[in-house]
Amino acid sequence: MSLHQVSVLIDKLHKEQPLIHNMTNVVVTNFTANGLLALGASPVMAYAREEVADMAKIAGALVLNLGTLSEELVEAMIIAGQSANSHGVPVLLDPVGAGATPFRTASALRILREVEVSLLRGNAAEVAHLNGENRAIKGVDAGQSAGDERVELAARAARKLRTVVAVTGPEDVITDGQTGCIVKGGHRLLMQVTGAGCLLTSVLGAFAAVERDLLLAGTAGLAFYGAAAYRAAERTEAAGPGSFQIALIDELSRLNRDSLTANTEVREFLPSSVKEGEAQ
Ligand SMILES: Nc1ncnc2c1ncn2[C@@H]1O[C@H](COP(=O)(O)OP(=O)(O)O)[C@@H](O)[C@H]1O
Ligand SMILES: Cc1ncsc1CCOP(=O)(O)O
Ligand SMILES: [Mg+2]
């Protein structure tokens, strides 16, 4: 995968302005809609079981986010997800807080069983819990994790859950279990903005809507989001997280094919489990 292949996807996104159907949480709804608009996509939030199948089938991507879930919402997500599946619309899952309560973990696993999820994006703790691995989690926030750990965790999860997996943190990892990319960039101020991960998953949805190779689309989403965050922090770090949040939206609107410069690094990798022949 070349940096050129990744970079040109922003032009495609600007040209196609894909409709992104989000079923997200009450904390991040407005931030997500504004972030997607700034990026050049067209957001819609729709939750009613009476309409989600119709909305999902006309969208460029469907993003399911478990941040403030209920039994009814999960049912509606499954209806939407199955409609997306039968119309070739990619489905992204953000398992917010998986592992924090048994209901969150079970709901995420239920969606993964009943819907064909194209890309799962979570922090290390959430992905580990879905993979049956125990890790500290505090509400929706992950604890510390080393870079190598995230690479192997993402690869194990991708193989077990049979989807492309992005594990985010100080560096982001995306893999289909056999090959993948590490994306360095971004800024630690992202950790002080609630919804930074949720918006990222919807941004990945926007790239998935314009590029069917989910590894390529996901890498582009991670890299462009990191680049926007880096630039936003350059301008607002001294002021604090409130100014940074607004600047992040501004910088998402300024992205172009030259944005992935010196401050973003995209490196392909083979998980060591693949190199050592352990992966099936
Ligand atoms: N320690 C960190 N330093 C820099 N960027 C980070 C750090 N932790 C997370 N990020 C970035 O914050 C965004 C959200 O990721 P993350 O915090 O893992 O998700 P979530 O908010 O869902 O827990 C991603 O773009 C990720 O690269
Ligand atoms: C604080 C909180 N509580 C339920 S959802 C949510 C937002 C989580 O957003 P993110 O995972 O992007 O930080
Ligand atoms: Mg999250």
Automatic annotation (TrEMBL):
Signal peptide span: none
Entry binding sites for ATP: R121, T168
Membrane listed as a keyword: no
Recorded catalytic activity of this chain's protein: 5-(2-hydroxyethyl)-4-methylthiazole + ATP = 4-methyl-5-(2-phosphooxyethyl)-thiazole + ADP + H(+)
InterPro entries in UniProt: Hyethyz_kinase (IPR000417), Ribokinase-like (IPR029056)
GO molecular function terms attached to this record: hydroxyethylthiazole kinase activity
Cofactor: Mg(2+)
Assigned keywords, A-Z: ATP-binding, Kinase, Magnesium, Metal-binding, Nucleotide-binding, Thiamine biosynthesis, Transferase
UniProt keyword Cytoplasm present: no
Residues involved in substrate binding: M45, G195
EC nos: 2.7.1.50
Annotated pathway: Cofactor biosynthesis; thiamine diphosphate biosynthesis; 4-methyl-5-(2-phosphoethyl)-thiazole from 5-(2-hydroxyethyl)-4-methylthiazole: step 1/1
Family membership noted in the UniProt record: Belongs to the Thz kinase family.
Function description: Catalyzes the phosphorylation of the hydroxyl group of 4-methyl-5-beta-hydroxyethylthiazole (THZ).
HAMAP family per record: Thz_kinase
This protein's name: Hydroxyethylthiazole kinase
Organism of this sequence: Paenibacillus profundus
Gene coding for it: thiM
